[in-house]
Amino acid sequence: MRVVVTGGAGYIGSVVTDQLIADGHEVLVIDNLVKGHLDAVHDSAQFAEIDLIECDNITNALGEFGADAVIHMAAASLVGESVTNPSKYYQENVVAGLSLLDAMRDASVTRIVFSSTAAVYGDPEKQPIEETDATTPTNPYGAAKLAFEHALRWYGQAYGLSSISLRYFNAAGATTRRGERHDPETHLIPLVLDVAAGRRPEILVFGDDYDTPDGTCVRDYIHVEDLARAHTLALQALDAPGVARSYNLGCGGTGYSVRQVLDAAIRVTGTDIPMRVVERRAGDPPVLVASSQRIAQDLGWQPQRQELDEILTTAWQWMQQPAHPSR
Length: 327
Ligand code: UFG
Prior knowledge:
Layout: E1 2-6, H1 11-22, E2 26-30, E3 46-48, H2 55-65, E4 69-72, H3 79-84, H4 86-106, E5 111-117, H5 140-159, E6 162-168, E7 170-172, H6 188-196, E8 203-206, E9 218-219, E10 221-223, H7 224-237, E11 244-249, E12 256-257, H8 258-269, E13 275-278, E14 287-288, H9 293-299, H10 308-320
Parallel strand pairs: 1-2, 1-4, 2-3, 4-5, 5-6, 6-11, 7-10, 8-13, 9-14
Antiparallel strand pairs: 9-12
Helix pairs in contact: 1-7, 2-4, 4-5, 6-8, 8-10
The chain binds uridine-5'-diphosphate-4-deoxy-4-fluoro-alpha-D-galactose.
């Protein structure tokens, strides 16, 4: 298949691109490189530096490449920033996304896999979360992702677009070649490992008075290779015109608390990790754990790396590589 990956120079996008190429697909990465890294794009992938808002340029790129399908991962993705700057999130995650969909229509590309998020559920009433549960986002990031999911449904009904939205829980870990490189970094695992590596003095724990077993927030960490594998499975399943589906992507179980992540990081790195409990971070739901039964049943997806220590080990090994790019 000839697959376009928007955001393919980013953390998850680069792993998806690697897997597509390993599976024998042709890939065109489209990325504006505002956050992505050119050196994270596989050598065998084609690359075009285009912003999705440039609809005509995207149409031309899709046409010239002869795209069969799009995996749309390009997005702004900081929950906190979305609260203080919702305009950016509606512009980049909705307006630019619609520009991509219209370019796809112009180029007669009818299949798309979309990177959605657990943030569409807001503060859920029950765990684990199922796709049939209420979607009531509590921040503009989740609201904009949900708005785009809705657009996919209406575009399916009206124009025959076939779509699968993958609602990511907490992507984590690394492959031998790719890992997390955000600037600024806000995610727990890379920050904790930065402390272990001596690059930061301490980790701040955002609240230990939640109604959870140890008082810290619980999340569902999913290894980036397991997450990426779901995209290649979804691509194969995009055959019915007009059908829009959504799937959760997490490991399920009971999830892991912030304290459990710190304990695992101490085990994996063999170093002490100074921590300090501070105020809660605005907008953090106490618990987010996925039921991924629907994607298991429909697409046969199963996570291979569910142990937190193993996930952290992959991230730590990637950070230890001499070639690890400085942040
Ligand atoms: N945390 C800390 N200290 C830190 C960083 C994080 O205690 O320095 C805590 C957070 O409060 C949270 C947990 O660690 O309880 C995980 O935080 P992350 O920032 O790593 O991840 P989030 O769960 O906030 O965000 C993830 C995705 C988002 C998605 C969101 C859904 O990264 O894209 O889940 O709520 F929107």
